[in-house]
Amino acid sequence: MVTERIIIEDTHRIDAGKLERAAEILREGGLVAFPTETVYGLGANALDEEAAKKIYAAKGRPSDNPLIAHIADFSDLKPLVAEIPEAAGKLMEAFWPGPLTMIFPKSDAVPYGTTGGLDTVAVRMPSDPVAMTLIRLAGVPVAAPSANTSGRPSPTTADHVWQDMNGKIDMIVDGGPVGIGVESTIIDVSGENPVILRPGAITQEMAGEVLGMEIGLDPAITGDGPMNADVKPKAPGMKYKHYAPKADLTLVEGTPADVVRTINHLAGKKLEAGYRVGIICTDETMELYPDGMVRSLGLRAREETIAHNLYAVLREFDDLEADYIYSESFSADHLGQAIMNRLKKAAGYHMIKVTALSSKRPH
Question: What stretches of the chain show up as alpha helix (H) in DSSP?
Fold first, then answer.
């Protein structure tokens, strides 16, 4: 398969004519990668079960991992869902269009091939103007997981998509780098109480403020290990290893001084043994790491910079052929919750919790 690539040079004044071919591919059951405000998505007609199968094949994605249906207008939601709970209406009003996915009871129109065999459907209305224009032109809801090989760091530029998907899909729409850099927040509104299944830029605190209640977190977020193999995931990113670089990634938790000391010690031992070692840190600590391939994610005081750069740095270490990567840890609230969720999964939950006197690897 020859993968076409088109470039949208002005994302504020989009020439819809440049997207007509991409929309046609989607209507005809093909695959198109396109930017959203979170990461690049790999799109197919969400109502076409055979098109959904092509997504799974191109990504190498397990078939029980649900897809998210993307829409461009509020009126597009009703045909996809059996009901719209009151909580969902409040969240839609506050955060759509934007980086929020919600899990609804599905209608009969949505095939099980899109939902991973579940009776619920994940739906999002992205705010990215390229995504919105393309979905409207296609005239169908667009299933769009991240446009990467399953398990790898998600793509935040069209070049990342090209690395993973060239020759596997019909077209890549290049709309430049994405804004946020981590996938959407997923909230399950299909039950009695809303529950966050995947953290993102719409934080637990933000959603709770809109609903006037504390929003629960799924154990897949709060736990320090992967979901059991026999459990069906209700949303993308819950069960399988995700976001992982090729190198062995380890997270180090503790006080800032202990983390720096431990990373320098571990990196030094690997460097002495002849390995290529990457270190993930922040602008505040970058000068404290004298050896290894040191990369800052941004300012710890501005978590949005950390999220924006996370996947690009993980992919850069792939390009640099790192053997081992050691990363600082981040806060477990606000946007830090999403950052740590991605890092834990990328590391396969390989973490060192260090104190001034000892280091301990949890089992």
Answer: 20-27, 49-59, 86-95, 112-115, 129-138, 158-165, 204-211, 219-222, 256-272, 303-319, 335-346
